[in-house]
Design brief:
single chain, mainly alpha, Penicillin binding protein transpeptidase fold, 0% strand, disordered C terminus
Amino acid sequence: MPRQPLPPYVDELAPAPARRPGLVRWLARKLRWLALRVFALMLALVVLFGWVLNPPTTWTILTEGELPRRWTPAADIAPVMLRSVVAAEDANFCVHWGFDMAEIRRVIGRGESRGASTLTQQTAKNVYLWQGRSWVRKTLEAIYTPMIEAVWTKRRIVEVYLNVAEFGPGVFGIHAAAAQHFGTTPDRLSARQAAALAAVLPAPKTRGADPRSARARAIADGAETIRRDGRAACFDPPSDAAARPGGG
Protein backbone atom coordinates (compact mmCIF):
# COMPACT_ATOMS: atom_id res chain seq x y z
CA MET A 1 0.00 0.00 0.00
CA PRO A 2 1.56 3.33 -0.97
CA ARG A 3 2.56 5.69 1.89
CA GLN A 4 0.18 8.60 2.24
CA PRO A 5 1.79 12.07 2.25
CA LEU A 6 1.70 13.94 5.55
CA PRO A 7 -0.72 16.83 5.83
CA PRO A 8 0.87 20.25 5.09
CA TYR A 9 0.54 21.45 8.68
CA VAL A 10 2.78 18.62 9.90
CA ASP A 11 5.70 19.92 7.82
CA GLU A 12 5.13 23.40 9.17
CA LEU A 13 5.38 22.14 12.76
CA ALA A 14 8.57 20.16 12.16
CA PRO A 15 11.63 21.57 13.99
CA ALA A 16 14.16 23.57 11.99
CA PRO A 17 17.50 21.90 11.31
CA ALA A 18 19.97 22.34 14.23
CA ARG A 19 22.63 24.99 13.57
CA ARG A 20 24.64 24.56 16.77
CA PRO A 21 27.65 22.76 15.20
CA GLY A 22 28.09 25.63 12.75
CA LEU A 23 27.85 28.20 15.54
CA VAL A 24 30.42 26.33 17.61
CA ARG A 25 32.84 26.23 14.67
CA TRP A 26 32.33 29.95 14.09
CA LEU A 27 33.01 30.76 17.73
CA ALA A 28 36.09 28.52 17.74
CA ARG A 29 37.46 30.32 14.68
CA LYS A 30 36.84 33.70 16.27
CA LEU A 31 38.48 32.68 19.54
CA ARG A 32 41.48 31.26 17.68
CA TRP A 33 41.73 34.48 15.66
CA LEU A 34 41.63 36.54 18.86
CA ALA A 35 44.11 34.31 20.71
CA LEU A 36 46.64 34.47 17.87
CA ARG A 37 46.47 38.25 17.76
CA VAL A 38 46.80 38.59 21.52
CA PHE A 39 49.81 36.26 21.41
CA ALA A 40 51.34 38.30 18.57
CA LEU A 41 50.82 41.54 20.53
CA MET A 42 52.43 40.05 23.63
CA LEU A 43 55.42 38.86 21.61
CA ALA A 44 55.75 42.27 19.95
CA LEU A 45 55.84 43.96 23.36
CA VAL A 46 58.50 41.53 24.56
CA VAL A 47 60.67 42.28 21.51
CA LEU A 48 60.04 46.03 21.86
CA PHE A 49 61.13 46.21 25.52
CA GLY A 50 63.90 43.70 25.04
CA TRP A 51 65.75 45.27 22.13
CA VAL A 52 64.24 48.63 21.15
CA LEU A 53 62.94 50.63 24.12
CA ASN A 54 63.14 50.63 27.88
CA PRO A 55 59.72 50.19 29.51
CA PRO A 56 58.56 53.79 30.03
CA THR A 57 56.50 52.91 33.10
CA THR A 58 54.32 50.17 34.59
CA TRP A 59 50.81 49.99 35.94
CA THR A 60 52.10 49.77 39.51
CA ILE A 61 54.43 52.75 39.07
CA LEU A 62 51.60 54.81 37.56
CA THR A 63 49.33 54.10 40.49
CA GLU A 64 51.80 54.01 43.40
CA GLY A 65 55.03 55.77 42.39
CA GLU A 66 55.94 58.89 44.35
CA LEU A 67 59.63 59.69 43.84
CA PRO A 68 61.22 60.72 40.51
CA ARG A 69 62.47 57.69 38.60
CA ARG A 70 65.39 57.52 36.18
CA TRP A 71 66.35 54.57 34.00
CA THR A 72 69.79 53.17 34.82
CA PRO A 73 71.53 50.82 32.36
CA ALA A 74 73.08 47.67 33.80
CA ALA A 75 76.53 49.04 32.96
CA ASP A 76 75.87 51.92 35.38
CA ILE A 77 74.77 49.68 38.25
CA ALA A 78 77.35 48.20 40.61
CA PRO A 79 77.77 44.52 39.62
CA VAL A 80 77.30 43.53 43.25
CA MET A 81 73.78 44.96 43.08
CA LEU A 82 72.91 42.62 40.22
CA ARG A 83 74.35 39.67 42.12
CA SER A 84 72.58 40.67 45.33
CA VAL A 85 69.13 40.77 43.76
CA VAL A 86 69.69 37.39 42.11
CA ALA A 87 71.01 35.89 45.36
CA ALA A 88 67.98 37.24 47.21
CA GLU A 89 65.23 36.42 44.72
CA ASP A 90 66.41 33.66 42.38
CA ALA A 91 69.77 32.01 43.06
CA ASN A 92 69.26 29.54 40.19
CA PHE A 93 68.52 32.33 37.72
CA CYS A 94 71.29 31.34 35.30
CA VAL A 95 70.27 27.70 35.04
CA HIS A 96 66.50 27.79 34.52
CA TRP A 97 64.37 28.81 31.52
CA GLY A 98 62.01 31.07 33.43
CA PHE A 99 60.48 28.56 35.85
CA ASP A 100 62.54 26.99 38.63
CA MET A 101 60.97 23.54 38.53
CA ALA A 102 63.15 22.20 41.35
CA GLU A 103 61.98 25.01 43.65
CA ILE A 104 58.37 24.56 42.57
CA ARG A 105 58.51 20.84 43.40
CA ARG A 106 60.15 21.61 46.75
CA VAL A 107 57.43 24.11 47.71
CA ILE A 108 54.65 21.72 46.66
CA GLY A 109 56.30 18.79 48.43
CA ARG A 110 56.52 20.73 51.69
CA GLY A 111 53.00 22.06 51.38
CA GLU A 112 54.23 25.63 51.72
CA SER A 113 52.06 28.60 50.83
CA ARG A 114 54.92 30.82 49.68
CA GLY A 115 55.45 31.32 45.98
CA ALA A 116 58.33 30.08 43.88
CA SER A 117 58.40 32.93 41.37
CA THR A 118 61.64 33.46 39.51
CA LEU A 119 63.15 36.81 38.63
CA THR A 120 61.82 36.39 35.10
CA GLN A 121 58.28 35.79 36.33
CA GLN A 122 58.47 38.83 38.58
CA THR A 123 59.76 40.93 35.69
CA ALA A 124 56.90 39.76 33.48
CA LYS A 125 54.39 40.67 36.18
CA ASN A 126 55.96 44.04 37.00
CA VAL A 127 56.41 45.21 33.41
CA TYR A 128 53.36 43.88 31.59
CA LEU A 129 50.73 43.01 34.19
CA TRP A 130 49.42 44.06 37.59
CA GLN A 131 49.83 43.11 41.24
CA GLY A 132 47.44 40.83 43.04
CA ARG A 133 46.51 37.18 42.63
CA SER A 134 44.19 35.90 39.93
CA TRP A 135 44.15 33.06 37.43
CA VAL A 136 44.04 35.52 34.55
CA ARG A 137 47.19 37.28 35.71
CA LYS A 138 49.00 34.02 36.45
CA THR A 139 48.08 32.65 33.01
CA LEU A 140 49.38 35.75 31.22
CA GLU A 141 52.51 35.66 33.39
CA ALA A 142 53.06 32.02 32.40
CA ILE A 143 52.90 33.04 28.72
CA TYR A 144 55.13 36.10 29.05
CA THR A 145 57.83 34.31 31.06
CA PRO A 146 59.15 31.90 28.38
CA MET A 147 58.81 34.66 25.78
CA ILE A 148 61.09 36.91 27.83
CA GLU A 149 63.58 34.10 28.39
CA ALA A 150 63.64 33.36 24.65
CA VAL A 151 64.01 36.97 23.47
CA TRP A 152 65.90 38.85 26.20
CA THR A 153 69.33 38.16 27.61
CA LYS A 154 69.64 37.26 31.27
CA ARG A 155 71.47 40.52 31.89
CA ARG A 156 68.60 42.45 30.29
CA ILE A 157 66.11 40.70 32.58
CA VAL A 158 68.02 41.77 35.70
CA GLU A 159 68.46 45.30 34.33
CA VAL A 160 64.74 45.74 33.65
CA TYR A 161 63.79 44.18 36.97
CA LEU A 162 66.02 46.56 38.93
CA ASN A 163 64.55 49.55 37.10
CA VAL A 164 60.90 48.74 37.81
CA ALA A 165 61.05 46.98 41.18
CA GLU A 166 59.71 48.69 44.31
CA PHE A 167 62.31 49.37 47.00
CA GLY A 168 60.04 51.12 49.48
CA PRO A 169 56.64 52.81 49.51
CA GLY A 170 56.53 54.81 46.26
CA VAL A 171 60.24 54.16 45.57
CA PHE A 172 60.61 52.44 42.20
CA GLY A 173 63.82 51.66 40.36
CA ILE A 174 67.38 51.28 41.54
CA HIS A 175 68.27 54.94 40.90
CA ALA A 176 65.56 56.24 43.25
CA ALA A 177 66.34 53.48 45.75
CA ALA A 178 70.05 54.26 45.96
CA ALA A 179 69.33 57.97 46.41
CA GLN A 180 66.48 57.52 48.89
CA HIS A 181 68.09 54.94 51.16
CA PHE A 182 71.81 55.75 50.94
CA GLY A 183 72.17 59.12 49.23
CA THR A 184 74.26 57.65 46.44
CA THR A 185 74.02 56.47 42.83
CA PRO A 186 73.60 52.87 41.61
CA ASP A 187 77.19 52.60 40.39
CA ARG A 188 78.55 53.51 43.84
CA LEU A 189 76.58 51.02 45.91
CA SER A 190 78.72 48.94 48.25
CA ALA A 191 78.17 45.23 48.84
CA ARG A 192 76.42 45.93 52.16
CA GLN A 193 74.17 48.60 50.64
CA ALA A 194 73.29 46.39 47.67
CA ALA A 195 72.38 43.53 50.00
CA ALA A 196 70.25 45.85 52.12
CA LEU A 197 68.31 47.03 49.08
CA ALA A 198 67.78 43.46 47.88
CA ALA A 199 66.51 42.54 51.34
CA VAL A 200 63.66 45.06 50.92
CA LEU A 201 62.23 43.46 47.77
CA PRO A 202 59.89 40.76 49.11
CA ALA A 203 58.01 43.30 51.24
CA PRO A 204 58.96 46.82 50.09
CA LYS A 205 56.12 48.55 51.91
CA THR A 206 57.11 47.24 55.32
CA ARG A 207 60.86 46.50 55.27
CA GLY A 208 63.66 48.99 55.67
CA ALA A 209 67.05 48.92 53.94
CA ASP A 210 69.22 47.99 56.92
CA PRO A 211 72.72 46.68 56.07
CA ARG A 212 73.00 45.27 59.62
CA SER A 213 69.94 43.02 59.35
CA ALA A 214 70.38 39.26 59.33
CA ARG A 215 68.69 39.01 55.93
CA ALA A 216 71.00 41.62 54.40
CA ARG A 217 74.07 39.82 55.74
CA ALA A 218 72.81 36.51 54.34
CA ILE A 219 72.21 38.12 50.94
CA ALA A 220 75.71 39.63 50.92
CA ASP A 221 77.15 36.17 51.57
CA GLY A 222 74.92 34.70 48.87
CA ALA A 223 75.98 37.32 46.31
CA GLU A 224 79.63 36.48 46.91
CA THR A 225 78.88 32.76 46.73
CA ILE A 226 77.19 32.94 43.32
CA ARG A 227 80.06 35.11 42.07
CA ARG A 228 82.60 32.46 43.11
CA ASP A 229 80.72 29.37 41.94
CA GLY A 230 79.74 30.76 38.52
CA ARG A 231 76.00 31.16 39.04
CA ALA A 232 76.33 34.83 38.15
CA ALA A 233 78.07 34.15 34.83
CA CYS A 234 74.98 34.76 32.68
CA PHE A 235 74.54 38.38 33.77
CA ASP A 236 77.89 39.53 35.16
CA PRO A 237 79.77 42.07 33.03
CA PRO A 238 82.62 40.54 31.01
CA SER A 239 85.28 42.14 33.22
CA ASP A 240 83.81 40.48 36.31
CA ALA A 241 83.51 37.14 34.55
CA ALA A 242 87.16 37.28 33.55
CA ALA A 243 88.14 38.02 37.13
CA ARG A 244 86.57 34.82 38.43
CA PRO A 245 88.73 31.73 38.94
CA GLY A 246 89.06 29.97 35.62
CA GLY A 247 88.23 33.16 33.70
CA GLY A 248 84.69 32.10 32.97
